[in-house]
Specification:
Helices cover 30% and strands 24% of the residues. The chain is built from four helices and nine strands, in the order E-E-E-E-E-H-E-H-E-E-H-E-H.
Length: 208
């Protein structure tokens, strides 16, 4: 089932002269807004001006050995900008499964929850871009989830969809934003372009 346009971020829809298959580094097309305490998209690729109605957040998950706890711990990070009051670095709930994929999902969920619950209503964006390096999250929320729901949350071979609880939570948030007139789109980028969120995620999963 094809993914709805509204869930996939296409740089070509925002900036003139950008082709659908052009390699665009997200770090070169965002600007930190001091007044709003988060990243926004630039008006043009090399412009100093930004679009105040947009909000960009980098997200990442981590699942690594924690020497303080003697076991692998999951954590996630949400990067809204340098020293932003909204940046998130949290461990996964200790009473729930700990995996890399769940950490990645928690990162996207945490970002949207932060936007909904912490940013003042007067500063709420019209367009949200969630930047992730996770193929699993990106394709899951923009493509696979529609087939999963239609098939009763079963995959091929009648296998249950893993992490259904988190995909349902993330999907509900995207729908909730849409009902408020806010579009949420996901942009998948290489891991090397998602270093700030990765740092926040690793800090969480390695904390005492």
């Amino acid at each position: 089932m094809p993914a709805p346009i509204s869930r996939r971020f296409d740089p070509g829809n925002y900036w003139e002269g950008v082709s659908p298959d052009q390699d665009v580094d997200p770090n070169n097309v965002v600007r930190y807004c001091l007044k709003q305490h988060h990243l926004c998209l630039r008006e043009r690729l090399r412009s100093k001006q930004y679009m105040p109605h947009t909000l960009v957040v980098f997200v990442d998950g981590s699942y690594q050995y924690n020497e303080h706890h003697g076991q692998r711990i999951g954590g996630y990070g949400c990067y809204f900008g340098p020293s932003s009051r909204y940046n998130v670095s949290e461990c996964l709930p200790s009473n729930r499964p700990q995996t890399s994929n769940r950490a990645e999902l928690h990162a996207s969920i945490g970002a949207l929850q932060t936007i909904r619950d912490c940013i003042p209503e007067s500063s709420q964006p019209e367009d949200v871009v969630v930047i992730t390096d996770s193929r699993y999250v990106y394709r899951g929320i923009t493509e696979w989830i529609f087939a999963w729901r239609a098939n009763g949350w079963m995959r091929r071979g009648r296998r249950r969809v893993e992490n259904r609880d988190l995909f349902e939570k993330l999907d509900a948030l995207v729908v909730e934003f849409g009902q408020c007139g806010v579009s949420v789109r996901f942009w998948r980028v290489p891991r090397a372009r998602n270093t700030k969120a990765d740092e926040l995620a690793r800090e969480a999963s390695s904390a005492p």
